[in-house]
């Protein structure tokens, strides 16, 4: 018997800080006009997917995206603690050019390790937080089809498991580059098997 739960992940729409190339982390900025349009187009994509609930990060840019989708899909988004973007510590609010010459920049932004900005969260910590929350939500609403609005670094870390070249073997998980930039409002279809606790890309 197939008890897999179908769900969809999407990054929030474009923000003012995305355009300015500032690191948001758990700080925030408003959606641009383009970001709002991306959210509307995302909702239109979802019209035929039988979405029954919208779950969202509590951060403003994700809530703003989810609210636009909710208006179109006639659903009230639910904010989920644990779906927040990675906390980038001292880097938050800085422009990319201010930190991208640091020796640990590539490890922090393009790998999945314990390395983290000062006062921040590592990619491994982020991934554990997100996956634990996601499993809990999908298990408690197994019959729902969820649209989940989250963030770029969550997607980078979570989706690495579906890239063949990044499949863990020996120590490769520590050094593999996962620097794929998931586009604003890009829709990703996945499934979750509660019996095995595994995720699959559709």
Question: Would you kindly provide a written description of the structure presented here, covering whatever features stand out?
Answer:
The chain is an alpha/beta fold and 202 residues long. It has one domain (5-180): Rossmann fold. 36% of the residues lie in helices and 14% in strands. It has 8 helices and 6 strands; from the N terminus they run βααβαβαααβααββ. A 6-stranded mixed beta sheet has the order 3-2-4-1-5-6. Helix 2 crosses helix 3 (60-73) and helix 6 crosses helix 7. The longest helix is centred in the middle third of the chain and has 18 residues, at 123-140. It is globular. The model is unreliable at 169-174 (pLDDT under 50).
Structural descriptors:
His_Pase_superF_clade-1, 202 residues, 8 helices, PG/BPGM_mutase_AS, 6-stranded mixed beta sheet, glycolysis, EC 3.1.3.-, 6 strands, single chain, Rossmann fold, alpha/beta
Compose a concise summary of this entry:
This protein has 202 residues and is an alpha/beta fold.
Percentage of residues assigned to helices: 25-40%
> Span from first to last CA?
18 Å
Q: How many individual helices?
A: 8
**Share in β-strands:** 5-15%
| SSE string | EHHEHEHHHEHHEE
Strand order within the widest beta sheet: 3-2-4-1-5-6
Pfam families: His_Phos_1
Keywords: Glycolysis, Hydrolase, Isomerase
Enzyme class: hydrolase
EC number: 3.1.3.-
